[in-house]
Every structure is written in structure tokens, then in C-alpha cells.
Amino acid sequence: VFSKKLKEDDLRKMTSLPVIGHIPRSYESSNTIVIKSPDSTISEAFRQLRSRIQFFTKEARSPIILVTSSMPGEGKTFTSINLASAYSLLGKKTVLVGFDLRKPKIFQDFNLRNEKGVSTWLIGQDKIQDIIQPTTLENLSVISAGPIPPNPSELTALDKTQELFRLLKEKFDFIIVDTSPLGVVSDTVYLSSVADMCILVIRPGHTLKDMLELTLN
To answer: How far is CA 184 from CA 88, 95, 102, 209, 214, in A?
Structure first.
């Protein structure tokens, strides 16, 4: 089956949702651009994205900002990491939550461990203080996804997910959530219902038009 790759002009025809940022392509091996290259054009793009998000979240206390995509490989984890880093550089206590329970990633970018995380907290194995890991940035913490569970969709839909975010709102100024692709699995649908804002990352020349249409519908 032939599936057309998306161009930016196609996006404007498909949806009236606002485009809140354009992030240049990174050719670095590291995902932590804002931390390692704060003066780069990519870092500046994330600062601009951070400023625009304020218009959508200004009424929310400790907003939950969910980052997803329609399919793998569009840059949602890259966006999550650098957006969280940009908030922490404002002096705001920020936590980056790895809620892609099927393919845990973000712990690797920060050289952290993944034995404990979202999955172990949801099953009652660990306490909240046990899963929050500090990073080299003073105001940035990370909660990794934890070991891959056999039932990620069911685990995500538990009431304990809402409890987790309630506890995080008490501890942090901003909560950035990296999730599974919205067009591929159902986990993110539930998470989007508890978020204050959802960012859908689209990569022109990579995103498949029919996958995006499915996600938007």
C-alpha cells in the first residue's frame, strides 16, 4: 500500500490546529541539544516553543504538557527532552516523565538507570521519591518508564496514573510527558485526557499522511 509522506502545505489543508513551532533538524548524535549547545539555533527554537506554549497553559497550575506523534521516528522524544531542558533553564522545577512504556528511551540520554520508573510505581512496587532521578541540570528531574510491562495499555489506564500526576503537580512547576505514538497504540489516548496541553510532533518528509489523518480523526 502506497502512503504519501507529508509536506507542510498538506498539514494546513488537513487541520486548523495551530502550528506552535518549527524545530530545525539536528545532526548531532545526542538528543540533549539545549543542555550541550545552548547557543545553537535548535536551542533557540525550543526557547521560542516554550514561550508560545505559555499562551496555552497560563491558566494551569504546574501544567502537564504531553508530547506525542502519529508514528515512530518523528522526533517526539527529542522534543520532550529539549522542551523539558528549556523549562528547567528558566529556574523552574521541571520533571520529564517517560510514559512510553513499550519503548523506554529517555533514561539513556541522561545516563540514568531504568530499573525503577513509571511502571514500577503504577504496580505499587516503588514510592514516588524512589523513581524521581536528578540530572546534571539543577532544576531538571527525570522519571524513566521503568521495565517494560506485559500490559502497558491497562497499566496506563489505572487510577494511579492520575494519582502520579497529582503528586508531581505538588512537587514541580512543569511536567513534560514523553509518550507512545498516538496513531499506533491506545496508551496515549488516556494520557491526553489528563494533560493540560498535547503537542503533536510532525516531521515533514517522514510523517505518513494517512497516519496523521488517522491520528487527527
So the answer is: 30, 25, 11, 14, 10
Query: Residue 197: which H helix or E strand, with range?
Result: strand 197-201
Torsion of the alpha carbons at 27, 32, 33 and 35, rounded to the nearest 10:
-160
Mind listing the pLDDT tens digit for each residue in 152-206? 888 888 889 999 999 999 999 999 999 988 766 777 888 888 999 999 998 877 7
Please tell me the distance from the alpha carbon of residue 9 to that of residue 5, in angstroms, as a whole number. 12
Question: How far is the C-alpha of 66 from the C-alpha of 201, rounded, in Å?
Answer: 11
Task: Using the predicted structure, report yes or no on whether residue 8 has a pLDDT greater than 70.
Answer: no
Greater confidence (68 vs 212) lies with 68
Q: Torsion over CA of 157, 64, 144 and 78, rounded to 10 degrees?
A: 120
Distance CA 56, CA 143 (A): 24
Q: What pLDDT is attached to residue 121? A: 95
Alpha-carbon span 200 to 105, nearest angstrom? 18
Q: Kindly tell me the burial class for residue 183, based on how many C-beta atoms sit within 10 Å of its own C-beta (0-12, 13-18, 19 or more).
A: buried
Q: pLDDT tens across 126-140, in order?
A: 999 999 999 999 999
Residue 207 CA to residue 71 CA, distance in Å, equals 7
Beta bridge partners of 69: 201
